[in-house]
Amino acid sequence: MYPQSFEYVAPRTLKEAVEFLRKHEGEAKILAGGQSLIPILKMRFASFGYLVDIGGLQDLHYIKRDRDSIRIGSLARTSEIEESQDIRMNALMLAEAASQVADSQVRNMGTVGGNCVHGDPGNDLPSVMLALDAIYKVTGPSGTRDIPASEFYVDSYSTGLGEAEILTEIVIPVIQHGSGGAYIKQRRRAGDFSIAAVAAFVSINESGNCGVARLAVTSIGPINFRSKKAEEFLTGKKLSDQNIATAAQLLVDSVEPVADPYGSVEFKKEILRLVGIEALSKATDRALGV
Fold first, then answer.
1. Does domain 179-288 sit in CATH 3.30.390.50?
2. CATH class for the region spanning 7-53
3. High-pLDDT (> 70) share of the chain, %
4. Burial per residue of 247-278, b for 16 or more beta-carbon CB atoms within 10 angstroms, e otherwise
5. 58-172: which CATH topology?
């Protein structure tokens, strides 16, 4: 099937792109790598009068290490996230998740901004951004504003991004000594969306207990989300096998998956419990330097 007709626009600057979106609010859609958008257009799940291709805006294509953070331009490719030494040294779980996105063709073409902004609950990078407490910088007619990843995801394919706004940068804190993260994904075949996946981040305080816990879920429910009950349970406790297992069960108790070709409700819950345990255990080992 072919998409419905549209007008292709390739702005030369970010300002030009934002102005075009403002003038054609509700009629235009941003095109970056196209790995999420093009299939939807081809299947006619959506149509737009204008596609605004920002792929040529090189000012949005970078990965930079600051003192306490990593700044990622929204047009950085997923494969670049996977291979970046700055990210592998300072936010390994993000590179870990990037390496599991679809297949090599998608990773070479798809952008980190597109993956995060699309609002598909099966996308991998949003859960890692939630677990890392990332900040999304967006630019629109009124200037630039910051949106915490924890406030960005509203519903399936619905985010806090305004109609005339563009995600320009993602800022993630560098993982400090005594902290660790991991992304564990279970899927039927290579290239598939996950049955369930968990991004886990933990820090260990001076008492040897959990100082901070952040747990985010992929492919279960309408959005990528964090489990507050599981996080609150772990905070202040030893990251023992028993406490990790209890937190994973609380994670399961906080979801209401639906049966689909990937599995029954009970099957998905059991997969989520197992990947939750594995992600938390791996994050704990990394925090301890094991």
1. yes
2. alpha beta
3. 97
4. bbbbbbebbebeeeebbeeeebbebbbbbbbb
5. 3.30.465
Joined together, the tokens standing for residue 242 give 């028993």
DSSP 50: E
- Strand ranges across the sheet with 28-31: 7-9, 50-53, 28-31
For residue 280, the model assigns a pLDDT of: 98
What phi, psi does 189 have (nearest 5°)?
-135, 155
What is the tens place of the pLDDT at every residue in 146-180? 999 999 999 999 999 998 999 999 999 999 999 99
**Is 69 in contact with 175 (CB distance < 8 Å)?**
no
For the purposes of burial, counting CB atoms within 10 Å of the CB of 207, is it exposed (0-12), middle (13-18) or buried (19 or more)?
Answer: exposed
Residue showing tokens 């609010």 = 25
Task: Report residue 212 as tokens.
Answer: 């901070």
Instruction: Give the residue extent of every domain in the chain.
Output: 7-53, 58-172, 179-288
What is residue 119's three-state secondary structure? Answer: coil
CA gap 138, 170 in Å, rounded: 9
Cβ-based neighbours of 218, under 8 Å, separated by 6 or more: 121, 122, 123, 124, 126, 127, 185, 194, 196, 197, 198, 199, 224
**3-state DSSP helix/strand/coil percent for the chain, to nearest 5?**
35, 25, 40
Residue 56 has phi, psi (to 5 degrees) of: -90, 0
CA–CA–CA angle 180, 182, 188 (5° rounding): 175
Closest C-alpha among 186, 191, 181 to residue 219: 186
Q: Is-same-fold flag (7-53; 58-172)?
A: no
Task: Map residue 194 onto helix, strand or coil.
Answer: coil
